Amino acid sequence: MTLRAVEVIASADVIAYHSARHGRSIARSIAAAHLRADHIEEPLVYPVTTEGTDHPGGYRGALDDFYEEAAARLAAHLDAGRTVAVLAEGDPLFYGSYQHMHKRLADRYPTEVIPGVTSVSAAAARLGEPLVEAEEVLTILPGTLPREELAARLAATDSAVVMKLGRTFGKVRGALERAGRLDEARYVERATMEGERTGQLADVDPESVPYFSVAVLPSRVAPLTGGPAPEPAASADPARGEVVVVGTGPAGPLWLTPETRGALAAADDLVGYTTYLDRVPHRPGQLRHGSDNRVESERAEFALQLAQRGRRVVVVSGGDPGVFAMATAVLEVASQDAYADVPVRVLPGVTAANAAAARAGAPLGHDYATLSLSDRLKPWEVIAERLAAAASADLVLALYNPGSRSRTWQVGKARELLLGYRAPDTPVVLARDVGGPEESIRIVRLADLDPAEVDMRTLLIVGSSQTEVVRRGGGDQVVWTPRRYPEG
To answer: Tens digits of per-residue pLDDT, 241-258?
Structure first.
C-alpha cells in the first residue's frame, strides 16, 4: 500500500470493499492493519461470480443491477456527509471493480483515485525478471479472450501478461503453445501475499490455478554482460535452429501480420535485402545480415547455415514472401541434401497486388493473373506469350516489376500487345510506393499508359473488359471488377 492510501483510510468514515458471497475480501485483508473499530464497513457482495444466473438480463444484467445498488449505498453515506474509502486490490482503474463505482459516482461527488501496484508489476518483481527493455512492447491481455485471439496477440508482442486465469488457464496455455511461446511463459499466483507461487507455466497443474494468478512473458532481451553481441557460432543447440521466411508487406509495420511480428521478435538473426531489413525495428542482441537484392541464393544458403548452428533465423522479404520473392529461393536451396534437416517455415504477407487493389477499389474482384515483366530470370518471349494468353482470356492483370532504370522498354511492349486484346479505354491502375511516404494511385486509359511514368516501385493493374471506373461524390476515382461475368 502507498502512504497516501494509508492516510486516506485513516481519515475515512466508511470503508467499502467488494467480495464474493463467502464474505472474504482480498482488498480488506491487505488493509486490515489500518482499519479502526469505529470504521463503518460496507461489504459490497457480488450476487454472482460466474455466468450462471437466472437474472432476466443474464450475467451482465445481474452485475449492472448490483453496481447500481452498491453505488446507491455509497451515495447515501456521501449524502450524509461521510467520507468513503473504497478498497481495491492492485490499481483501482486497472481491471478493478472500483471503476464501476467511479463511473456512477465521480461526476456527483469529489473523488480522488489513489494509484496502486498492479499485479503486473508485482508479478515481475516476484519473478525477478524484467518485463520490457529498450523498445520492447508490453501487451496486457485478459484470459477471457478467445484462444485464437490470444495466440495472435501473444505471437505479435515482445512481452505480455495474461490476467484472469483460473478457469481460463487451459485456454491460455493452449494459446501460448499455439504462439510458440510456452517455453518462455512464467506463472505467478497471489504475488506478495500468503500462498504465493511462481514457476514455469508449462509445469503448472490446471486444476490448481486460482483466479488471482497471471501468466508472464518477460523481456526477451538477454542479460547485459558488458561484452559484444554473441557471434552466430556461439549457439550450442543446433536442434533449436530454424529458418522462417516472412514478408513485410509493401511498406512498413502497419502491413505486418501478428504471426510475422512474433517471428521477427523471436529471431536471433535477420537476413535480407538491406532495404527490407530497414523496415524492421532494431532489437538488442539481434544480428542483422543485409545484402544486395541480386544474391538471393547466397542469402538463402547463408540463412540455412546459420540455422544449422542453432540460430533462429528470419529471412525478410517484401510483400508476400511467396510472390516473386524469397520463399522460392530459400526452399530451392533447402531442398539440397545438406539442409534436409533444417526446419523451414513460410509466413504469408500482404502482396503488392492486393495492397494496390485495395487502394484503388476492387479491380481484382474477379479472376485475375499475376505476372512479372522482368526478363532477368525468364526471356521476354515467355512473358509476351503469357501476357497474350491472359489477355485473350479477359483476365485482369497484376503486373509486377514493370520497369526500372535498366529496363525501360517492357511497359511499352506490354501496352502494344494488350491493345490487341483490350479496348483503348481499359482502365489501368498505376500504384506507386503503396503504403509508403510517396504513395500515389493513378488511373489512366490503356492507350494513354506512358512507360516514362513507371519505375521499379510501381505496380500495374490492367482491367478486364468488365472493369468499371466511377468518380464517387466528386472525389477520387474508384475501380472495381464485377464478380458476375456475362454469359455468352
So the answer is: 999 999 998 877 788 888
